[in-house]
From TrEMBL:
This is Elongation factor G. GTP binds at residues 15-22, 83-87, 137-140. Catalyzes the GTP-dependent ribosomal translocation step during translation elongation. During this step, the ribosome changes from the pre-translocational (PRE) to the post-translocational (POST) state as the newly formed A-site-bound peptidyl-tRNA and P-site-bound deacylated tRNA move to the P and E sites, respectively. Catalyzes the coordinated movement of the two tRNA molecules, the mRNA and conformational changes in the ribosome. It is found in: Cytoplasm. GO terms for cellular component: cytoplasm. One of its GO terms (molecular function) is GTPase activity. GO terms for biological process: ribosome disassembly. The chain holds residues 1 to 414 of 704 of the full protein.
Amino acid sequence: MSRDLKYTRNIGIAAHIDAGKTTTTERILYYAGVNHKLGETHEGSATTDWMAQEQERGITITSAAVTVFWNYRGNKYNVNIIDTPGHVDFTVEVNRSLRVLDGLVFLFSAVDGVEPQSETNWRLADNYKVPRIGFVNKMDRSGADFLAVVKQVKEMLGSEAVPLQLPIGAEDNFKGVVDLINNRGIVWNEEDKGMTFTEVPIPDDMLDDVAQWREKLLESVASYDESLMEKFFDDPNSITEREVLDALRKAVLDNSIVPMVCGSSFKNKGVQTMLDFVMELLPSPMDQEAVKGTNPRTEEEISRKPDVKEPFAALAFKIATDPFVGRLCFIRVYSGNLEAGSYVYNSRSDNKERISRIFQMHANKQNPIPNIGAGDIGAVVGFKDIKTGDTLCDEKNPIVLESMVFPEPVIGLA
Ligand code: GDP
């Protein structure tokens, strides 16, 4: 069993403390659970069942990586959320997670905007060229200002931040967004905790702003795509939603554009639409270049493509203890495939060890899986001698993955 890498996302959530990372992560787990059930059963009642269960239990994320499923435009995505510590004291850990993830949701508070740790984490993400989406949270709070945060991202972080939405209503009355790509207004439904939304006409008093910001969006995206630029000058109305999304994805992948969306995770608004954009715009493991390393025997530089047919290569990025399954080693697999119960070579220790089980961690359970393939993230049980940063690989094709180079902590921003 190997998954289609096109439908895998390895993402982290980065934020200054208090911007709402915990709340947003919990909502992601919640919505993904409901969305997954809906995708399985095609019955609305699954939503309420799942909601009742989860309300009783409460969902929290305690794992270094948690896997959720998300149905988007007819495809089921496998999303691994890698824990990305917010506090500046954990810069090394942030580096470690940035090394293994493919894309970031960068959270800002709509009231506080760009804060010192946003700045530190943004620079670290720049070092690793991690494509990202900006999520401006807390839109329900007094003083919330989405466009002011977009401006700060441009001015303080020097990135081409481009709004994909404009909020409908503000503060207490924040209830929806206009999607500037398809010119559609939506309002989240309160009765199912914002799981679904209702389409609404663009409010009259927003028509001018929407037209103006949509034009800016099209122009920004078109400037990274020649054929779109021609259309933009000929007849902007002939540009389709798919064309914008495809060109935007390219610009996001090469870090030219940071798309910005908004919501209030606390009020169950906007997390779902943000997740849709994660599937649409952030890279899959297949979009990554081949990972580089050296052959420990010859010192020759080698690389591994994100393909299950390549020799196995994975990086151990976190060792943790789970009360139910014991010592877990979280790995990011770059190439090849690893079977539970097999032997795997560690290029640091020059030893082979038998791994007993492989798990994918979910919000409410550990799911044993028979194997783990290129592009995926999971937790392995059975190692006796393992350290974070170790490369696990095929003994006949050994590789030491580029060691995690930790830039000096950024001092003086706080
Ligand atoms: P973290 O430190 O980034 O993990 O932030 P938390 O998720 O713990 O949130 C910090 C505080 O902000 C908590 O009191 C949350 O209830 C609150 N909060 C989070 N998201 C929102 C939001 O969208 N709106 C409002 N009004 N409060 C929020």
